[in-house]
Design a protein that fits this description.
Keywords: Cytoplasm. Pfam families: RecX_HTH2, RecX_HTH3. One of its GO terms (cellular component) is cytoplasm. Helices cover 73% and strands 0% of the residues. With 154 residues, it is mainly α. It folds into three domains: 8-56, Orthogonal Bundle (Arc Repressor Mutant, subunit A); 59-98; 103-153. Helix 8 (125-138) runs antiparallel to helix 9 (143-153).
């Protein structure tokens, strides 16, 4: 609950600065506007203005989010999709975002992560395979791809 309710003009200036700082999803911006004490038509009007003035673009957000999480944190597609769904991004925008991850890079990253994890483990091959598989699943990679990558290491 805000200490005081912002006027529409004050909220507009603040939310534009908030959106200009980094890409945001619609739900994130909507929650911020509610935090400013705005509701109903005011929120809808400000969202429409932000979209019209290109401060807010959910496809752009999804593409940058997916590409960034893959490149910077080596997340798999399943984890990225899950995070985008949590942020209430549309299925269409999620599909567009997945195009930001080239298949060759994805497979290469998975194999590199598998080899690195495998190298840090000791013990029997079956235990190393299980631990590597769990690690890669936690990173959001698909099981068939993981099994193939781990199979190459054994």
């Amino acid at each position: 609950m805000p200490k005081q309710r912002l006027s529409l003009q004050e909220a507009s200036l603040k939310i534009k600065a908030y959106c200009a700082y980094q890409e945001r999803c619609h739900d994130e911006v909507k929650q911020k506007l509610y935090g400013y004490g705005l509701y109903g038509r005011e929120v809808d009007q400000l969202l429409a203005d932000l979209i019209e003035e290109n401060y807010l673009n959910e496809e752009r957000f999804a593409r940058l989010f997916a590409g960034g999480k893959f490149r910077m944190k080596a997340w798999g597609k399943m984890k990225i999709v899950q995070e985008l769904k949590l942020r209430r991004v549309s299925e269409y925008n999620i599909r567009m975002a997945m195009k930001e991850i080239p298949d060759m890079d994805y497979q290469g990253c998975l194999e590199q992560l598998a080899a690195k994890k495998w190298g840090t483990l000791s013990g029997k091959k079956i235990e190393k395979a299980a631990k590597t598989t769990r690690y890669l699943m936690q990173k959001g990679y698909e099981l068939p791809l993981i099994q193939k990558a781990v199979g190459l290491l054994q």
